[in-house]
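re: ur question from earlier - yeah i can do the single chain one, its not a big deal. heres the input i used so u can compare w yours
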Amino acid sequence: MQQMKIHVEAADRVFVLTGAGISAESGLPTFRASDGLWSGHRIEEVCTPEAWERNPALVWEFYSKRREDGAKAQPNPAHIALAELEAQVGDRFFLCTQNVDDLHERGGSQRLVHMHGELAKSRCEDDCGRPPVEDRAIYKSLAEVGHCACGARLRPHIVFFGEIPLEMGRIERAISDSTLMIVVGTSGSVYPAANFVHWARQGGARTVYIGPERPLNASAFTYVVEGKAGEVMPGLFTVDA
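and the output i got, formated as C-alpha cells:
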C-alpha cells in the first residue's frame, strides 16, 4: 500500500507540536499510565508546587532518575524526520514540544521551544528573574543541589502541574502565523496544548495528526495518520523548494 504524503508548499509556515508519544518510541515512559503512577510515583507527590514545598528531596530524586533515563535514550527516526523537515523549511518552521527531554535537539532540531521546561536545566525556586542554568547532575541527596546566585535553592526547570506553560506568547504568535500544523504523539488531553489545533484551524491552517491511535480531538484534524511516528514519518513529507 502506498504511503500517504503530506505536501508542504513553498509558502507554508509549519508549526509542529510533539508530545510524550514521540519520546515513548525512544523508550522514555509517559506519565499517563493506567494505574495513575509515573515511574512509581503519583503526580501530586513529585510534580506540583505543593510537592516541591513539602518534599524537595523526593522531587529531586525523581527528576534525577528521569535525567538518568533521558541520557540513555536516543533520538528515533521521528525526531530525525522533523529535523530534516526543518532543514528544508528553514525559518518557516517552528517546533513546540511538551516533552522535557533533549531528544529533539540531539536529533538535529534547532528552532524549538519546550513549553513544559527542560530536564537538563535548573532554575531558582524563588523565581528571582535569573535565567535557568544547564544542569545534568544526578543528585543523590538534597545537600548536593546547588543554589542560585540569590541564595535560593535550585529546582528542576520543569513546569509543574498547576503552573503556567513557558513561552505561551511566542507559541500563540507562531500558531497564528501557521498554515500547516503537524501534531505528533500527543493524545489531545493535556491543555492548553490540546487547544492548539483548534486555534490553527480557526486561522485556516491545514492540520495533521500522527500517532498510533486516534486522538481525543481527532475531528479537528484535516488528516489523521495512524501508526508509530518513527515508522510513518520518514518520507511522509514532500517539500516545495
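The first helix runs from residue 20 to 24. not sure if urs matches, ping me
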